[in-house]
Each structure stands twice: as structure tokens, then as C-alpha cells.
Design a protein that fits this description.
- About 75% of the residues lie in helices and about 0% in strands.
- It is mainly α and about 260 residues long.
- Helix 3 runs antiparallel to helix 11 (about 215-225).
- The longest helix is centred in the C-terminal third of the chain and has 28 residues, at about 230-255.
- The protein is globular and about 55 Å long.
């Protein structure tokens, strides 16, 4: 594990040095992130012109949830998508073979070897939105709430990595199948509290597709104080998701035949 952490640090450093060579990109990344966030906030404000609560969430609480969603989305854009959005093509044209010969787990290299550090601007701005939402809601958060929120953010990041990896691994069985658009569509459900959806869909997004654990559960812990049962459930979902991702990946490798052989 320590070797992988050091390797990840080295790869991140290389990616950062490569990206800061084009400093104008940082400005554009921040501008695009600000515009996207502003658009999301405007859309949320328009919704609240028609109602006082959204699934029981007041405006400030929904803003904090949107900020939490932005943080997890930024981590996805910075560390996962630069790798897995091209994974299907690498398997099809044989470039995946090179990863299998490296002295590191293929699942790590395939999902985390390349980074887009500038996308971390989304994480920073998401944190600002969370702070604004908490202030707007007039809630005094406790140290326990903040600590629980951070733990649940880590769990949400693990769930995000696991579900994205499982989806990418489907290419081992169906080379022509691309479910990225489906994943992006489901991902957008996390932008709002799962309480706004009707019961069948809400149960699906909580117990089948763990969308609720991406933003709703962490935000609820921050705003209302963390409960031990919720933390244990979220950590269990994260650990279970990671184990499932490894099992699916190993099963996929057993079916994989080199495109260059």
C-alpha cells in the first residue's frame, strides 16, 4: 500500500508539472468551473422560487449538498476520468497490454495512473459553496459533523471510483459497449437530495445504485450531525464497492485476450 501511495504521488507530480507548463489552462479551468457552478446555483435558485423546501431540504442545505457534489465531481475529473474515459479504446487497440507488464497492479495503473490536477479547482470551489450553503442555512456545524462529513467524503470517493471502474471493466466482455453516457446521466441524480425522488426511484438510488452516498448522505451528516450507523453504512458500502470492483476486474482479466496477439 505504501508503495502505491508513493507511486501515486510521483505520477501526480509528473501530471502537475506537465499541466502547469500551460498556465493559461488553469485560468480557463477556473473560469469554466465558476460558470458551471454559477449555472447550477441559478438553476437551484429558480427551483426555490416555486417552493420553500426541496424534499425537506431548505435552500442553504441544498447549496451545501451541491457543493459536496462538486467536490466529489472534481475528484472524479482530476483522478479517475483522465484514465477510464479512454480505457475501452486502450483495450481495443492493445495499449492495455503494456499495463499488464508493469510492476504494479493493473487496476491501479488503468484507473489512477494519469491525473488532471487543474480539475482540483472544482474541489476548492466546491468547498467554498459548501461553506456558503452552511452559512446561508444558519446552521452551526459541530466538529463531529465536520469530521463525519470528511469521512463520508472519502467513502463517496471510494464509491465513485468503484462504480466507475466496474462500468469500465464491462469492455472485457463487450468491446463495442460504451456505458459512459449512462453513468454520466445517473451521476447527475446526485446533484439533488435523493429525497426529492419518488419512493421506487429513491430506493433504487440508495440501495441498488449508491447515488445517495455521493452527496446526500455526507451533506446530511454535516448539516445535522453525524450518526454512527450512517457512517458505518457508508463505509460498508464503500468497502463493498471496492471489493466488488476488484472481483469484477479479476473476472474481466480472465476473459481478456490480447488485441496484439
Amino acid at each position: 500500500m505504501l508503495k502505491l501511495i508513493r507511486l501515486f504521488g510521483t505520477l501526480f507530480s509528473l501530471s502537475l508539472r506537465r499541466q502547469i507548463a500551460f498556465r493559461a489552462d488553469l485560468v480557463f479551468e477556473v473560469v469554466l468551473t465558476v460558470v458551471a457552478l454559477a449555472s447550477a446555483l441559478v438553476a437551484l435558485a429558480m427551483i426555490y422560487t416555486r417552493t420553500n423546501t426541496l424534499g425537506g431540504w431548505h435552500p442553504g442545505e441544498a447549496i451545501a449538498l451541491l457543493g459536496t457534489f462538486q467536490i466529489v465531481s472534481g475528484l472524479r475529473a482530476a483522478f479517475v476520468e483522465p484514465n477510464l474515459q479512454w480505457f475501452g479504446n486502450h483495450v481495443k487497440d492493445g495499449r492495455f497490454d503494456a499495463l499488464l507488464t508493469q510492476p504494479a497492479p493493473a487496476i491501479f495503473l488503468a484507473s489512477l495512473s494519469s491525473c488532471a490536477p487543474l480539475a482540483l479547482a472544482q474541489v476548492g470551489l466546491g468547498g467554498v459553496v459548501v461553506a456558503y450553503g452552511v452559512h446561508h442555512a444558519g446552521i452551526t456545524v459541530t466538529p463531529v459533523g465536520v469530521a463525519t462529513w470528511l469521512v463520508l467524503l472519502l467513502a463517496a470517493t471510494a464509491v465513485m471510483w468503484a462504480t466507475r471502474t466496474i462500468l469500465a471493466a464491462t469492455v472485457f466482455w463487450a468491446l463495442g459497449l460504451s456505458l459512459d453516457a449512462v453513468y454520466d446521466a445517473v451521476w447527475q441524480f446526485a446533484r439533488y437530495p435523493v429525497d426529492v425522488y419518488r419512493r421506487p426511484l429513491r430506493l433504487l438510488l440508495t440501495y441498488v445504485l449508491p447515488v445517495a452516498f455521493l452527496a446526500t448522505v455526507p451533506s446530511g451528516a454535516l448539516l445535522n450531525g453525524g450518526e454512527l450507523l450512517v457512517v458505518l453504512m457508508a463505509v460498508g458500502v464503500a468497502v463493498g464497492g471496492c471489493l466488488l470492483a476488484h472481483l469484477v476486474w479479476r473476472a474481466g482479466l480472465r476473459c481478456y485476450t490480447s488485441a496484439t496477439s
